[in-house]
Amino acid sequence: MISPLLRRLLLWSGTAAAMALLPVVLHQGFALSMLCQMGIAIIFALSYNMLLGQSGMLSFGHAVYFGLAAFVCAHALNAIGAGRLHFPVTLLPLIGGCAGLCFGILLGYVTTRRSGTPFAMISLGIAEMVAASALMLPAFFGGEGGIATNRQVGQPWLGISYGPQIQVYYLIAAWCFLCMIAMFALTQTPLGRLANAVRDNPERARFVGYDPTRVRYEMLCLASFFAGIAGGLNTINYEIVTADTVGIVASGNVLIMAFVGGVGHFFGPILGAVLVSFLQSALSSYTQAWLLYFGLFFVVMILFAPGGIASLITLHGPVVRAGLLLDLLPGYALSASALVVPLAAFIALVEMTYRLESDTGPGGGLRLFHLQIDVSSVLPWVIAALVLVAGTALFVVSLRPLRHAWQSVHAELQARGAI
Amino acid sequence: MTDAALELRAVHKSFGRTPIINGVDLAVAKGERHAIIGPNGAGKSTLFNLVSGRFPLTSGHILLNGADVTGRPPQEINRRGLSRSFQITNIFPRLSVYENVRCGVLWSLGYRYSFWHRVGALPDVRARAEEIVERIGLAKRRDRPAGVLSYAEQRALEIGITIAGGADVILLDEPTAGMSHSETDDAVELIRTVTQGKTLVMVEHDMGVVFGLADRISVLVYGRVLASGTPEQIRGDAAVREAYLGTEVA
To answer: Mean pLDDT over residues A219-248, rounded?
Structure first.
């Protein structure tokens, strides 16, 4: 039996090793830039979960802190480039963190006066306000073009110029790892635990000596600090910051990452950030309809796994420990293969619809699943619709053996007293 | 009365135009076990909500250990040494039993809003929280989420959270409500031991519990103190008998 401390140590060093070795496998330009995007998203999503998962604050405006810090860093980087400021680029995210913290102290004082739905509404209002001022203050936000910058400033130190993307990756990875540890450590402090208490029952917290408003406020300030670090890394990575960075869409995106990954577990948002970043880069290069698939994926997750991927994993924890996972695998394999049929039909329908509406006009051929499809004829539509209906029925039927397998595994676990 | 742990002076409370508390004067001496009884709607729970800072007073004053705490927020009254439980169980359902108690311990040991201490590595917090969990008899349920405990266990946890901060004035709102006979006996024993050397004020409907525990009893009827005295005096009070006790203790 491994002690919890040793297990934690192994987990963290494994994570560090994986982050260090990933570029060895994924060294192509596309994969590497995706890894960079993931690292930034992980910090951002974890900082978001300090609000939602840990303190019960549903924020619709967390990108405000991320984006404002990104702008501050862009200006700082330009000042470094012009020789007006002497500061190592490696530590630039720290400027972002401090900027995020300052805006958190300022704006959070207003938003955290309330909890629940009023908090969500105020956060939305603040986000709209900042997004609106982005167009009103072109000196800071750079108008529609945004603020462009150049990360290759000053003399290279030990050969680190941040010219090659791989160097940027390791910068992001190092900051990401530090932030993950810091944010995890924060969950183990009195403030972190009281944030959970305030999430569960703010009124009771008052009667054990704590001011829930103060707890929420401090958590938001710290979350803004980490969001700011992510914003600073974003500036270094893309060398441009536009008004979109502070926008509602960016705030919605981080919410989706946290939810898909699972807000009830510390590691949930990490998974969500990785998966959502991957889907966004990978899907968007394959199909125009990627936002539609992405939206549907989110809806399906919320409907059938409201606890996110993390809850699906922890659900199987006792099963794996009891060595019963093999009992479930045939059921999963069957359902997964049955799911392919309606899924393919659904994708065909969506892609055909998009082709119908696209610039090339109706009558254009579509290559899908190695088939040439003429979307102007009726036959492919009828076939796809029939396959969708039949495939859905097939999938529903295929769930039965899986359900039976789960029932017997559950009974077995209960008999062993494992749950 | 300067040695009073808790003193209410001409306390009034109205909700809208409806008066609920009509001038309550009450002094609870240090170390006393004081029960507040009265029919439903007499304002007993409202009185607790006023004393603990949950509701603002319409007029009057509340003194805790001689200091005026009128209009102070609940957290501040708690920090000054008054802790209360709730009639409807009020716990942190997703936290474990141990963590529930620990939340009650942290402020009083000076850790406040700290984000630089590791909460698992604080020996004083651990010792105190473990001791409380042991005393409320939930050591075996230590790591269970509080939300899945039985009703009686949640009531015990409610008391555990209340006493965890080491407050010297404890307010218990119907601690045995909804319990079976044997559960009530356990609860009374628990209350007796954990409030040793402290000032206890409790609202209770079970007259067996009241007369078994209380040093003094106040009878609240229509937002006024009808009578206040030792259990014998209350038992013998004709007005109380007529207004409230009826045949229950006859």
So the answer is: 96
Q: What does pTM read for this prediction?
A: 0.92
What the block records as the tokens of A37 is 């995007």
**If contacts are CB pairs under 8 Å, which of residues 336-375 in chain A contact chain B?**
none
- Check residue B108 and report its DSSP letter: G
CB contact under 8 A, A190 and B164: no
* Model pLDDT for residues A179-226, shown as the tens digit of each residue: 999 999 999 999 999 999 999 999 999 999 999 999 999 999 999 999
Q: Please state which architecture CATH assigns to domain B4-245.
A: 3-Layer(aba) Sandwich (3.40)
Q: How many CB atoms lie within 10 A of CB A389?
A: 12
Q: What is the CA radius of gyration of chain B?
A: 18
> Which residue's entry shows tokens 């009185």?
B47
Tens digits of residue pLDDT in B174-194: 999 888 999 999 999 999 999
Q: Minimal Cα distance from A195: which residue of B?
A: B113
Choose the mutation target among A183, A200, A208, A220 for the interface with B, i.e. most B CBs under 10 Å.
A208
Q: For residue A113, give how far its alpha carbon lies from the nearest alpha carbon of chain B (Å).
A: 15
Q: Where are the domains of chain B?
A: 4-245
Determine, for residues A200 and B93 on separate chains, whether the beta-carbon distance falls below 8 Å: yes
Q: How far is A203 from B90, CA to CA, in rounded Å?
A: 9
On chain B, the residues whose CB falls within 8 A of the CB of A199 are 94
* Residue B6, min C-alpha distance to chain A (Å): 17
Q: How many Cα atoms sit within 13 Å of A368 on the Cβ side?
A: 21
For A117-153, the pLDDT digits (tens) are 999 999 999 999 999 998 899 889 988 889 999 898 8
Which domains are delineated in chain A? 4-306 (1.10.3470), 322-416 (no CATH)
Cα–Cα distance measured from residue A251 to residue A246, given in angstroms and rounded to the nearest whole number: 8
ipTM: 0.93
- CB contacts, 8 Å: A197 with chain B: 92, 95, 99, 103
Evaluate whether B164 touches B101 at the Cβ level (below 8 Å). yes
